[in-house]
Design goal:
The protein contains seven helices and seven strands. With 204 residues, the protein is α+β, with helices and mostly antiparallel strands. The chain has two domains: 160 residues, no CATH class; 36 residues. 26% of the residues are buried.
């Protein structure tokens, strides 16, 4: 069995992969990850969380943890990455590059993989990154809105990466009160009633 390249994808066995998916990863996978993981590729139907219209884009978020982020942060579904793994590199930056989701893959056999469903999923899983400005997204088409939501998520990710230590979350000008955790006494972060440690434990 070998990797074969086609027009817009490559194959290995019964699976189709994005052309930029590294061959080395295809040939060297840990047990129960990738092709052996139902979350990644589905249960005998090639409709896993890490696929778009029948084509493997990467790994599910659980397998991404198994690879400690070396193969991306993992996908939830509909080509949407798991932002909870924002400390891992994005698959789009690591190897995929930009994807024209509107026209990529086989839609006839994957009718759930629509831009509408992708947009809905982005809305659900990037809620923390969206602003509440009335009408901000009203005049955008689906592609523009998708890109706006992704940009907002990226901005939040970069902000999180900037604050590398607990102390950097605070400044002398900020006064958010003490953490609600009994006996903690540390200052709460701007978006939570808890300090950073207990925010990650309870609010996320």
């Amino acid at each position: 069995m070998s990797i074969e390249t086609h027009g817009t994808y490559k194959t290995f066995g019964d699976f189709k992969y994005h052309l930029n998916f590294p061959d080395e990863w295809i040939l060297n996978e840990k047990p129960d990850t990738g092709r052996q993981c139902w979350n990644c590729v589905g249960k005998y139907d090639n409709k896993g969380y890490a696929m778009w219209r029948g084509i493997v884009l990467g790994y599910c978020s659980n397998c991404a943890e198994d690879y400690e982020g070396e193969r991306g942060r993992g996908f939830y579904s509909f080509g949407v990455e798991y932002n909870g793994n924002h400390h891992f590199p994005s698959a789009f930056d690591l190897y995929l590059g930009p994807i024209d989701f509107e026209n990529y893959g086989d839609f006839a056999d994957n009718e759930d993989d629509t831009m509408e469903n992708r947009l809905k999923y982005l809305n659900e899983h990037t809620a923390d990154y969206k602003e509440d400005d009335d009408g901000k997204y009203e005049d955008m088409n689906l592609w523009e809105l998708t890109q706006e939501l992704l940009s907002s998520a990226l901005a939040r990710q970069q902000e999180d990466e900037y604050y590398e230590t607990e102390e950097e979350y605070y400044s002398d000008e900020d006064d958010f009160g003490e953490c609600l955790q009994i006996g903690c006494g540390k200052q709460s972060v701007s978006y939570s009633a808890y300090c950073r440690v207990h925010f990650e434990k309870y609010d996320r």
